[in-house]
Backbone:
């Protein structure tokens, strides 16, 4: 299955059509952006790490009953995926207060919450991905109530599965963002990626950040943090 035309180039990935209109190929880039594109840079090796780590997470998630877009890893940077219409929502699941939540509620980063928090943001760069609630989502037809119920159920399963995997690697899952797509027949599946670009991973012993916050906050050691995640998550596989 080869690439035909490029359908889309995003901040971290390119998406190509293939001869089969139900499938496309995603190609992960080393480009990094933060603050809605205001900060730009390169994280050498990121594309290949995110591709492999994301596919590994998704393969386990799939086994636990959440359908995903992944069909086959083609090489270091490229994966064959099911072509979907993306639901225009960023679903954020949080276990520990950090980032925008800590800021919004005036909390210290690191406060463990008594249950996971789920937030939805409307995917729109011009508007800076504003947070929306269930009522907005249904009223604006971003998703139906039924779809939202499925998305919520799947997101909490993803949280459980990731926490289980990462616990073995002495990594705390602080929060993460996922996206869903609709197949032609309307089936909701997990799409996009799950990687150090889209999750907060803290070393469980030292609380050292092992994710994109190192780039966002100029903490140094960005490449090493991505490599460390690859090593811990996939090293023993
Ligand atoms: N996140 C993401 N893409 C975005 C916004 C957030 O992948 O456009 C991830 C981010 O890496 C973190 C989680 O979602 O793991 C929660 O992010 P938050 O809302 O705290 O925003 P941030 O501090 O990243 O701006």
Residues:
């Amino acid at each position: 299955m080869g690439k035909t035309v490029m359908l889309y180039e995003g901040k971290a990935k390119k998406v190509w059509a293939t001869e089969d209109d139900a499938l496309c190929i995603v190609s992960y880039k080393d480009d990094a952006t933060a603050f809605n594109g205001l900060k730009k840079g390169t994280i050498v090796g990121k594309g290949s790490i995110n591709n492999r780590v994301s596919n590994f997470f998704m393969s386990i998630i799939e086994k636990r009953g959440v359908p995903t877009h992944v069909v086959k890893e083609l090489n270091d940077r490229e994966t064959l995926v099911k072509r979907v219409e993306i639901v225009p929502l960023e679903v954020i699941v949080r276990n520990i207060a950090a980032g925008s939540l800590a800021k919004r509620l005036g909390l210290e980063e690191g406060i463990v919450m008594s249950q996971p928090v789920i937030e939805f943001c409307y995917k729109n760069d011009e508007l800076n991905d504003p947070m929306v609630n269930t009522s907005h989502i249904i009223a604006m037809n971003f998703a139906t109530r039924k779809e939202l119920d499925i998305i919520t159920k799947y997101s909490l399963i993803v949280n459980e599965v990731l926490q289980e995997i990462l616990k073995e690697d002495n990594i705390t899952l602080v929060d993460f963002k996922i996206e869903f797509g609709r197949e032609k027949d309307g089936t909701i599946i997990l799409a996009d990626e799950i990687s150090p670009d889209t999750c907060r991973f803290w070393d469980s012993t030292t609380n050292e950040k092992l994710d994109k916050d190192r780039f966002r906050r100029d903490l140094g050691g960005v490449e090493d943090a991505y490599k460390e995640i690859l090593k811990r998550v996939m090293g023993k596989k």
In short: The helical segments are 46-63, 99-105, 134-139, 145-167, 213-216, 222-234. The longest helix spans residues 145-167.
